[in-house]
Design goal:
Helix content: 40-55%
Largest sheet: 6 strands, mixed
Strand order of the largest sheet: 6-7-8-3-9-10
Number of helices: 11
Strand content: 15-25%
Number of strands: 10
Order of helices and strands: EEEHEEHEHHHHEHEHEEHHH
Bound molecules: adenosine-5'-triphosphate, magnesium ion
Mean pLDDT: 88
Low-confidence stretches: 261-272
Length: 275
């Protein structure tokens, strides 16, 4: 693997009132420019892992271990130092995209001000970048720029939130279920653009997803998570065809099997192999 950008070592996240930790001794690495997938069933701790990286966990949680980003332990940073990293160095697109924008400020103004907060650019330059990224996301840029979040559909707000993250050109982009609110075609387009940006800027991507086909197709390596632990990791080829862990087998089988069909797992596996 090339030079590591982010290394998570023995991360533990626990609440005071639960006996079992939400995340247990998690180890994960992302190299510069690499795209990794993080998969696992609902509630296993994927979003909490992303939040831990950015110090965005709920207050009552206890965090142990190390999160090294460019060799600095993020768990030792102050709130202010974290805020400086957020957006410009590490971008996150949340699963709940509605939280990305303040409701009563126009989308364009929010994107423009976010760009200006991190890069010393004039209003005109920031506006141009904002309109360009909105266009890349397949949106009617001028209209979306002038709109309030409540004047747009959920999928449009989601794409605008993605545009805002990409406009800052982060070194690491965390995408938490970014295509859930989108139709298949818009989802493909958004993921294509993220890949294009990754090639152009060399940024690394952590893709949290339930869509195994996308994870197989787009990532360099996949981590499989169960109950707060990484149970297996490997290339898409290894995870889909040569997995060792029974949970990975179950997860791959669940996604590939259709109710009422016999031997569908194997026949679908062949289809996925030909992607
Ligand atoms: N504020 C909170 N306080 C206590 N526990 C929480 C809190 N938020 C989430 N959890 C718990 O942490 C665990 C991991 O949640 P997380 O959101 O990371 O799951 P996930 O893998 O992202 O699931 P999904 O695929 O449904 O998004 C779950 O058991 C969840 O109930
Ligand atoms: Mg989640």
């Amino acid at each position: 693997m090339s030079e590591p950008l982010l290394t998570i070592e023995e991360l533990v996240v626990e609440t005071h009132n639960e006996s079992k930790a939400i995340i247990s001794r998690l180890n994960l690495q992302i190299a510069k420019g690499e795209m990794i997938g993080l998969i696992g069933e609902s509630g296993c701790g994927k979003s909490m892992t992303a939040r831990a990286i950015l110090n965005l966990l709920p207050g009552q949680m206890n965090v142990k271990g190390k999160i090294l980003y460019k060799n600095r332990n993020l768990l030792g940073l102050s709130h202010q130092e974290h805020r400086k990293l957020l957006g410009k160095e590490i971008g996150i697109i949340f699963q709940d995209y509605r939280g990305s924008f303040t409701p009563f400020i126009r989308i364009g103004k929010q994107i423009m001000e976010t760009i200006q907060a991190h890069h010393s650019l004039s209003k005109k330059e920031a506006r141009k970048i904002a309109l360009d990224v909105l266009t890349e996301m397949g949106l009617e840029a001028e209209r979306v720029y002038r709109s309030y979040p409540f004047q747009l559909s959920g999928g449009q707000v989601q794409r605008a939130a993605i545009a805002m993250s990409l406009a800052l050109k982060p070194s690491l982009l965390i995408c938490d279920e970014v295509t859930t609110a989108l139709d298949v075609m818009s989802g493909e387009k958004v993921l294509d653009y993220i890949e294009k940006m990754r090639k152009e800027t060399g940024c690394a991507v952590m893709m949290i997803t339930h869509d195994l086909t996308q994870a197989y197709k787009r990532t360099d390596r996949i981590y499989v998570m169960e109950h707060g632990e990484i149970v297996e990791s490997g290339t898409p080829e290894v995870i889909r065809c040569h997995h060792q862990h029974p949970y990975t087998k179950k997860l791959c089988g669940c996604v590939l099997a259709l109710p009422g069909e016999k031997n569908v797992v194997e026949s679908n596996r062949e289809k996925v192999m030909s992607i």
